[in-house]
Amino acid sequence: MSTLASQFGTRRRAELFDTLVDLFLAEGFAHLTLDEIAARLRCSKSTLYTLAGSKEQLVQAATVHFFRNAALEVEQRIADVAEPRERITAYLSAVGAVLSGVSDQFMADLDDFPPAREVYERNTEIAAGRVQELITDGVAHGVFRDVHAAFAADLATTMMVRIQQRAVRKRTGLDDAQSYRELAAILTSGISA
Prior knowledge:
The protein is mostly helical. The protein has one domain (56-191): Tetracycline Repressor, domain 2 (Orthogonal Bundle). It has helices at 2-27, 34-41, 45-51, 55-78, 84-99, 104-112, 114-140, 149-164, 167-172, 176-191. The radius of gyration is 19 Å and the shape is elongated. The model is unreliable at 1-8 (pLDDT under 50).
């Protein structure tokens, strides 16, 4: 019986985090109190305290939850893509698709809250490392010319940050998904063998 209760508790916890993430992505989090969050999630504040000890910790945990699930989704989307050029395009397009539902308010709140911003920055570094791996693989297979993979990944990272901060949207009018497709096209064309 305790195993069943434990499984229910874990499932309920995951459902709460998913709902919490959806709320934050749609509306941001800075303006919400714990009472408002509990009401919106249809749970008690004591239930929220089982997820995290404070609103700040709750925001950080939700941010980690979002980026962990986003990374898994991106990797699932490219799992069956074998050709190196297509893998980079699929990877960056998947990142754009995952982030396309994120509100400007969430991104502004994320930028203003250092613990959540650090999670975002760490995940951007991980994504840059993944792009570097994909470029290195393409060079090894002769699909890309012998480029400095770390530089190309850093270039991609710079644009990824600008896309996620909505700077590209403000400057060009492109949404995130369109921006990531353009980045993939420019990056893969520029390093093609």
